[in-house]
Structures are given as C-alpha cells and as structure tokens.
Amino acid sequence: MVEIILVVEDTPEQSKIAISILKERGFKVLLAESYQQARTVLSQVPVSAILTDLFFPEKKGQEPNACGISIAIEAKMKSIPVAICSQVNHHSCEWLWHAWKALQIPVSETKNWNDVTSQLLGDRKKE
User: Fold this and answer.
1) Which residues are registered as beta bridge partners of 72?
2) Where are the beta strands (DSSP E) in the chain?
3) What gap in Å lies between CA 94 and CA 101, rounded to an integer?
4) Separation CA 108–CA 30 (nearest Å)
5) 84 has which bridge partners?
6) What is the CA 3 to chain-centroid distance, rounded?
7) Domain tally for the chain?
8) Tens of pLDDT along 98-108?
9) What is the domain extent for residue 69?
10) Is 18 among the domain residues?
11) Does some domain include residue 68?
C-alpha cells in the first residue's frame, strides 16, 4: 500500500517542489493550501506523515491558530510524523526552536523541502 503524505503549503512554486520530491520517492501526495484544508484532509484521510509550511493566509485574518505549529501539534497528538519547512528567520520564529526540538519536530529553517523530507522520512522510498 502506498503511503500518503500531506503537504501543507500555500505558495504554488513551493508546493510543486515538495510534491515532486515526494513523488520521486514513490509516495502519494495530497496538497492542502490552507490551514482549514489541512484540517479537512486530516479528518477524512489517514495520512502517513505531514510536511507543513509555518504560516498561511488565514493567520493574518480571523483564525489566530491557523499555522504550521497548530498542524504539527495536532499531528503529534495523533502520532502522525510531521516536519515544518519554512523560512524561520524570515518569520522571526527562532524562539520556537526549543519547542520544536522538545517535540522532536524536524524543521528546515531555509525552506529546503529535500532536507526536511530526509529528516522526516530518512531514505524511505515506496515501490
């Protein structure tokens, strides 16, 4: 059975990179372009892992918890492996490193999907 990986990314160029890397490894990939889409997918599909950006458009509006951190915490509570891929310095989130490390959440601080995929999945490939 092919494992399903959820990518949560609102920038089309970045989602294409992440999806390409995962498909090359043989994974089935679902894309959520917002926090709400990610929550919907997670309520309907048993995913094997999640790769998420840090901030989404909803964060600027009415939904204060609409961020990759919330997705990561929900994933950890459901025992779903998760990693965060974002421009950490760009978002001034360096202070969150201690929380991510404590929760054992792999993070790419330079928006390197290949690196964070390897951190999360190792050398795993699906046939």
Assistant:
1) none
2) 4-8, 28-32, 49-52, 82-85, 107-108
3) 12
4) 20
5) 52, 107
6) 15
7) 1
8) 666 667 777 77
9) 4-121
10) yes
11) yes
3-state secondary structure of 52: strand
Does 51 fall in a domain?
yes
- Is residue 51 within 8 Å of residue 32, measured between CB atoms? no
Beta carbons of 41 and 78 less than 8 angstroms apart: no
- Which CATH number characterizes residue 100's domain? 3.40.50.2300
Distance CA 68, CA 39 (A): 11
Provide CB contacts within 8 A for 68, sequence distance 6+: 8, 52, 53, 54, 55, 56, 84, 86
**Residue 114 lies inside a defined structural domain of this protein:** yes
Q: Which residues of the chain have pLDDT under 50?
A: 127
pLDDT tens digits along 72-81? 888 888 899 9
Contacts of 39 (CB under 8 A, 6+ apart): 71, 74
Sign of CA dihedral 67, 72, 75, 77: negative
pTM: 0.83
